[in-house]
């Protein structure tokens, strides 16, 4: 069995948040995700009834999911792992919902979460995200010095906008991002600019940022393929969030169609994966005696 890419859609990203339009019912959202060709969904594992309904649908259609959680203490992770043990998940995506000023204060939390994950046999990835333990790029790199085997979920949109990298991004900042990507075992897909955490893929003025992120994701995929096992699964979660992540006009309406952007992103990343596979295959063929 070869390494695989699985592209998921965030259920949070299915929220519309329009005063003049109703939200899509949950079963409609799930059917949209299935019919659009996604491999699964990102699911909040906070409400057991919600998680059960969603995973029943996904399992029934041969799809997968990642379990998302936001623990502030070590024990906060226990019910999530218990729910995953019952319902399953490709992995747990953990946003560490604490904001220590010192690395020393992070170590007991990461040690505790990693111990619980090992005891339960559930893979846990720590997400890079603003307003979390991993909010700052430099701070997170220091965490990696303490935990060289820490498995991250890379959402580097937060670091681009958080550090407000100058354009064009210089080699120093590219190298810092690559250090994050070299420790990443999953990817969350959102395209940012240096001022905005989420921009539309389709606007002409955004194409430089689209190319930047596609380059980072290509590096992440190639790095993961070198580190992961021969039958491992890489998940890429399309996570184009609702307002205020999505930019709106004076009437409160979004300036672009997030759902269509998610479909475009899915196809772009699948094509990127296939190009990498094809290039590696040609390289192997050239090296063969």
UniProtKB/TrEMBL annotation:
InterPro entries in UniProt: Xyl_isomerase-like_sf (IPR036237)
Protein name in UniProt: Xylose isomerase
Highest taxon of the lineage: Bacteria
């Amino acid at each position: 069995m070869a390494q695989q890419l699985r592209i998921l859609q965030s259920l949070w990203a299915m929220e519309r948040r329009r005063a003049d339009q109703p939200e899509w019912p949950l079963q409609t959202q799930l059917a949209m995700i299935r019919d659009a060709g996604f491999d699964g969904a990102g699911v909040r594992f906070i409400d057991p009834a919600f998680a059960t309904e969603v995973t029943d649908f996904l399992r029934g259609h041969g799809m997968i999911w990642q379990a998302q959680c936001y623990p502030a203490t070590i024990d906060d992770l226990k019910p999530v792992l218990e729910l995953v043990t019952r319902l399953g998940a490709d992995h747990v995506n953990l946003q560490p919902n604490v904001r220590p000023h010192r690395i020393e204060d992070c170590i007991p939390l990461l040690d505790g979460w990693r111990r619980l994950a090992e005891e339960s046999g559930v893979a846990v990835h720590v997400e890079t995200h603003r307003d979390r333990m991993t909010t700052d790029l430099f701070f997170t790199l220091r965490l990696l010095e303490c935990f060289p085997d820490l498995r991250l979920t890379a959402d580097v949109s937060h670091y681009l906008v958080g550090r407000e990298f100058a354009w064009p991004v210089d080699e120093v900042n590219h190298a810092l991002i690559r250090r994050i990507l070299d420790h990443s075992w999953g990817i969350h897909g959102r395209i940012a600019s240096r001022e905005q955490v989420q921009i539309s893929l389709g606007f002409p003025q955004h194409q430089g940022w689209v190319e930047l992120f596609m380059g980072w994701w290509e590096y992440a995929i190639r790095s993961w393929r070198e580190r992961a096992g021969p039958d491992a699964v890489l998940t890429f979660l399309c996570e184009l969030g609702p307002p205020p992540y999505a930019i709106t006009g004076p009437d409160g309406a979004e300036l672009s169609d997030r759902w269509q952007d998610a479909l475009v992103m899915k196809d772009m990343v699948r094509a990127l994966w296939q190009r990498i596979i094809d290039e590696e295959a040609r390289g192997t063929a050239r090296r063969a005696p």
